[in-house]
Amino acid sequence: MSGWSSNSKYAFLGGMRSAAQMVSYEVAFGFTLISIFLLTGSFNLTSIVISQQKVWFVIPLFPIFLIFFISTLAETNRHPFDLPEAEAELVAGYNTEYSAMTFALFFLGEYSNMIMINAFIVLLFFGGWFLFKISHSFFFAVKVVIFCSIFILIRGLLPRYRYDQLMSIG
């Protein structure tokens, strides 16, 4: 919506790329969630975390975790799937026409989405607030911070895909 409403062809192209990317990775994202729901027999996040007291789901479902992790990178528009922004190609994508507070709100939204999806990863695959059968919210916060750090490290380690490569991976 922001790419279209800015009335710029560069921002519009970035918005169209973002919409196509989100649609192409929703299928893999959904199938991984369905496998977790079938394994636990519940949609309740608390019961999913409680069912991981003995073994975290990342161990028996490691390939599903990899698919989920890659899908979350694409859903949050993080590197190497940050083609909607693509500073070198699209003059910062849909952010071209925005400055000051609106620009800050876009990045605040992106980083809050990254924190939320990392909390979701911890809840679904890494035992939530449990660590070695000890329950504490501190463990949950530490796990989320570790995954946020991984997201930031990936930005420095991996090159960006071309748009056709991104769509064929999806």
Key traits:
two-stranded antiparallel sheet; globular; 170 residues; 2 strands; 2% strand; mainly alpha; single chain; 67% helix
Quick description:
The chain has 170 residues and is mainly alpha-helical. It is built from eight helices and two strands, in the order H-H-H-H-H-H-E-E-H-H. The chain has helices at 2-5, 9-40, 45-50, 62-75, 87-90, 100-125, 137-157, 163-169, and strands at 130-131, 134-135.
Q: Helicity level, as a percent range?
A: 55-70%
The fraction of residues in strands falls at under 5%
The counted number of beta strands is 2
The chain-level structural class is: mainly alpha
Radius of gyration: 18 Å
* N/C terminus separation: 23 Å
Mean pLDDT: 78
Strand order of the largest sheet: 1-2
Looking at how many chains there are and whether they match, the oligomeric state comes to single chain
Write a structural description.
The chain is mainly α and 170 residues long. The chain has one domain (2-169). The chain has helices at residues 2-5, 9-40, 45-50, 62-75, 87-90, 100-125, 137-157, 163-169; strands at 130-131, 134-135. Strands 1-2 form a two-stranded antiparallel ribbon. Strand 1 and strand 2 form a beta hairpin. Helix 2 packs antiparallel against helix 4 (62-75) and helix 6 crosses helix 7. The longest helix has 32 residues, at 9-40. The radius of gyration is 18 Å and the shape is globular. The model has no long low-confidence stretch (mean pLDDT 78).
